[in-house]
Amino acid sequence: MGKGRLEAFSDGVIAIIITIMVLELKVPHGADWDTLAPLAPVFLSYVLSFIYVGIYWNNHHHTMHAINKVNGSVLWANLHLLFWLSLIPFVTGWMGENHFGQVPVVIYGGVLTMCALAYMLLVSILIRLHGKDSALGQAVGSDKKTWLSIGLYVAGMALAFVHPWLGASLYVIVALIWFIPDRRIEKHLNH
């Protein structure tokens, strides 16, 4: 079956996720700089999560560009990914409202870990459907970058028990690693 509905549905869900996150930003009561200071953790968690959702949207787009068909397993794997992505607004709000408290930072890292695992599962199923010699299969290879990210998420969760900002800093590092879109697929498709 074609991939058009999967792409359209995924784009819609991701757009809703971003909309929900921005609606969590409450307008301060006051017109001076002091009224913004308490909102800094909320805004920082929003920026980090917006970047993460953008990274997933961008990489999902590139992945879908490299394939030409989907099946039932792909549809379910994609829904699995969207489920974990849909939890990002909740953990973002919780982490921001609680000024990067220990438990919210750990749970945020857990959701990021599950997003990464879900994306890896989706890509694995797509490669199984299209073959290891497909454009996607050749472009992804061993996927060391994803495994490194998962390791940093787990380390961030552990470090959050020492100090939440240490854990959060590892989540920022992973976002920076992925901020430039994964060019493996583009490079492979252009050759």
UniProtKB/TrEMBL annotation:
Source taxonomy: Bacteria, Pseudomonadati, Pseudomonadota, Betaproteobacteria, Burkholderiales
Catalysis: reaction(s): K(+)(in) = K(+)(out)
Protein name: DUF1211 domain-containing protein
GO molecular function: potassium channel activity; proton channel activity
Localization per record: Membrane
Keyword hit for Secreted: no
Residues passing through the membrane, by range: 6-23, 35-55, 75-94, 106-127, 147-180
UniProt KW keywords: Ion channel, Ion transport, Membrane, Potassium, Potassium channel, Potassium transport, Transmembrane, Transmembrane helix, Transport
Coiled-coil ranges from the UniProt annotation: none
Source species, domain of life: Bacteria
Species for this entry: Pseudoduganella ginsengisoli
GO cellular component, one term: membrane
Keyword hit for Transport: yes
Pfam families: TMEM175
